[in-house]
Amino acid sequence: xxxxxxxxxxxxxxxxxxxxxxxxxxxxxxxxxxxxxxxxxxxxxxxxxxxxxxxxxxxxxxxxxxxxxxxxxxxxxxxxxxxxxxxxxxxxxxxxxxxxxxxxxxxxxxxxxxxxxxxxxxxxxxxxxxxxxxxxxxxxxxxxxxxxxxxxxxxxxxxxxxxxxxxxxxxxxxxxxxxxxxxxxxxxxxxxxxxxxxxxxxxxxxxxxxxxxxxxxxxxxxxxxxxxxxxxxxxxxxxxxxxxxxxxxxxxxxxxxxxxxxxxxxxxxxxxxxxxxxxxxxxxxxxxxxxxxxxxxxxxxxxxxxxxxxxxxxxxxxxxxxxxxxxxxxxxxxxxxxxxxxxxxxxxxxxxxxxxxxxxxxxxxxxxxxxxxxxxxxxxxxxxxxxxxxxxxxxxxxxxxxxxxxxxxxxxxxxxxxxxxxxxxxxxxxx
Length: 431
Ligand SMILES: [Zn+2]
Known about the structure:
Blueprint: E1 2-10, E2 15-23, E3 27-32, E4 41-44, E5 48-52, E6 54-59, H1 78-90, H2 95-111, E7 114-119, H3 130-141, E8 145-148, H4 158-170, E9 177-179, E10 181-185, H5 191-200, E11 206-210, H6 214-224, H7 228-234, E12 243-246, H8 252-260, E13 264-267, H9 269-274, H10 282-287, E14 291-294, H11 303-318, H12 326-344, E15 359-363, H13 375-383, E16 391-394, E17 397-401, E18 404-405, H14 410-429
Helix pairs in contact: 2-3, 2-14, 7-8
Bound molecules: zinc ion.
């Protein structure tokens, strides 16, 4: 049995000082230090806050090799951003590049205290077997949890995309990984493709970009005479637990459909600002009972930055300092854990008996008192403001110990660099 001792626990629900946590893969017991009876492996957490490790609700591991990529880029709109950067990039990825980008991304996730990711994957050179490559690198090798899918798009062989999603989602399952059905966006999917998908997915939830840009809505209204969400819903695609990423240009009817179908909106404020596409209407989503989870759309791994941008961004959007409360923040955090917990059939997101031992320690010295009444203020203005996890555990395994990775990936990192060079060469040659 392992134990954290002298821990100040902060799991978004409660704040308690001087605690011990007994755990293996799962948290077995939490109590006051005065009652601690010993364990085989003990981590002294004096001076640290112990929190649940974090989750990224919408990301693209394939963005790993875009860092520093220097190609002609002069977009006038969002479609140009896709055509001039992302579609050039993902079209040049093969299985090997996918595997190594997974290792690099997982490495950075661990450093950022993130142990569960919901990925939206695309790779044009090879489609079949790529979700398994992500699972191999991120879950099997790097010991994180992931929910994966392939972005079906008319840019690719649609039948192969559908098969890849179904093979992975209906294949082996574990508490570490799971699959849902990926689709790129309404504007890159014909009615023919939507019908094919609708006929083949049964109750599998979908994961799609929805109304990320004005063009996505405009395309749907001009070509099909209806909004993006109405179009997807008319094909019976918005199943329970589906993820609609971005949801910026939704109207009331669309928000209502998402809420009624028990689907989720994955909001990505930092990415939205980077792409200059505007920010989602959190109030509209909330009014229609749409549960929001937070993602970063593949923009790095430090999701604490996205929580800060969510908190500040909504106040800016509504020109009101009370537009987004600490309760709203807690709800978004909890939604992510509940969603992934459901898909992986585990409990995560609390430091509590029966929950998985997915935890981080963060050194935190506060000039002011911390209590249950002000803990979320400490999260935003203290912990996330200078966020450097010291230790990270996933499923009870220590992955970051005193700021150092416990897995030796030195040699693998050389392979990662080699793969990135190959990908950039393929992009440069426009093969
Ligand atoms: Zn995305």
